[in-house]
Amino acid sequence: MMTERLRAHLLPVAVMALAVLALWYAGALWLNAPQVLDGFARAHTDHWTLSEFARQAFSQKRPILPTPDQITSEMVQSLTGYPVTHVRNLLFHTAVTAGSALTGFGMGVALGILLAIGIVQVKTLESSLLPWVITSQTIPVLAIAPMVVVILGNIGFSGLLPKAVISMYLCFFPITIGMVKGLRSADPLSLDLMRTYSASGPQTFWLLRLPSALPYLFTSLKIAVAASVVGAIVAELPTGGQAGLGARLLSGSYYGQTVQIWSALVMSALLSVSLVWLIGLMERFVVTGKRGGTR
Questions:
Q1: Nearest to 58 by CA among 38, 30, 23
Q2: Does the model's pTM come out above 0.70?
Q3: Given pLDDT bands bounded at 50, 70 and 90, which one contains residue 186?
Q4: Which of 95, 112, 168, 259 lies deepest, with the highest CB count within 10 Å?
């Protein structure tokens, strides 16, 4: 039974992965074809085979679209060919970005939860504050990032804090909206029962509203932690720093190193997936464990 379930889950994933790889290699062949033809023309090679053409397309030093094996090779070389603290090691850049993202994520969690509690507990804030919270997300982060860096830099804050603030800007919104929805999802009959017992506002919050909001909170945290990585990478672009995945992307674009760009993109995706997985693991222990305890 377990084998059948595993097969039922893995087979669609494997088929989709193979389809993506096939499309990727086909796209690399198509996009890199002009460079290959130009190379044949400069070498005065009039006769070439399809296998030779494909080999040249898949082994360009600066391809338009690198192949998965080129990206994997670049990542392995970067991770194993240099010390972890070396500027050429992807783990070094990943750690810098993760530090900014997690700091901004923590700030966003605190801000989002406080805003949600205020909006739910104080009716005036729902009409006065919530529209501004929603409006804040209509401003592109690419427009805000340079202003935040310049303003905080002029008042003496540089390095980690500006990047964390931009990450916080991206991740506080889903936490606020999710917590507002979650705090209001408490069973009305249970709320009436708490009033019957003359429970105070804090007692109702801690014993009823907060446990009801936990599933919504963890769903919002998964969205927010991925957004915090995006915010950290975007924040690294205008700072001109030498560390971080954003700086790695920027230097790759300056020198036309597309393989370096793609390896940084893949590493940022792996970082986001890892952080989302950690949030899911926490959710399994907190929410599922809490349900098991109440049973």
A1: 30
A2: yes
A3: confident
A4: 112
